[in-house]
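Working notes for the structural subgroup meeting. M.R. asked for a predicted model of this chain before we commit to crystallization trials. I am recording the input and output together here so anyone reviewing the notebook later can reproduce the run.

Input as submitted:
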Amino acid sequence: MIAKCTFQNHPYTEEPRDKPIHITRDMVAPFIYPTPDLGMDYSDISFVYLSTNEITCTTYDISPGGRFEPPDYHAGDEVYIVLEGKLTMLNTVSGQVVDVHAGEGLLMPMGAVHVGYNFTQEKVRTMAVLAPKIFAEQEFPTDTIGTYNVLNAKGKKEFDNFAKYPGTNYMGNISDLGAWPVDGPTAREYPQMFHYIPESKKLMVINGQENPLLMKFVVSNDFMQVAEVVIPTGGKGARMSEPCRHEGDAVYYIHKGTLSVFMTETRESYQIGDQEALFIPKGMEYQLFNYENDLITAYFCAVKL
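Returned structure, recorded in token form:
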């Protein structure tokens, strides 16, 4: 059975959202953008894991040589983490182009208008996290929005009219949580500019003292928290996290490996395999376990820490 998605209400269909849910592959809702009825011969295939009024978590694939279009935009900030391949992103208003490789991130502030390309001979797979809402009134755009600022269109002169966003080489520390790689309101003043987060620009935080984990924050702002969680293998029995809870809803997406999760209050346990996810309601305490013989690659996404 193929899961169907209602944006901002998936996979839950009723309130309250007060229990964890193991989002298995048969619960992930696929959709094609743009839909074939628009008469375009290019598209991506997307997969919705979680979509509420506070956060949406998806992945999408672009085939070799492909792209998605019309230009897309959203009612919240959007963060990409490339899981496989190399994604080339264009801001159609400013003409800014950036290559994002596997393991790297990209922050697109609310209202940023974007098109994604795959100029390689390998499939591109990308995780997308949006907060607070994926859409306001509209769903996906059905026409060209913004200016195509490319060489065979408007060219360089119009791009010169845009103010250059102030750059920084600051490395960051734990005090920057909530404003990384830039504070949200400032980023949204410049929706024509992307923020590229390579490995060297992730905000590194050690979580826990007795059972430390490494968290690499791609984005931490007033709308969302998105981080890679590194859970090593070996040590004193299974490697585990210390108990965690968050002020906002959270979801873990598993890219590689099998993550075990223990809910400390209900005593429930979950095993989340690759390309699966676990939704954890705000305020619920849990611990993460690695019973594997290798690292687990997991991505943590939450509204608030």
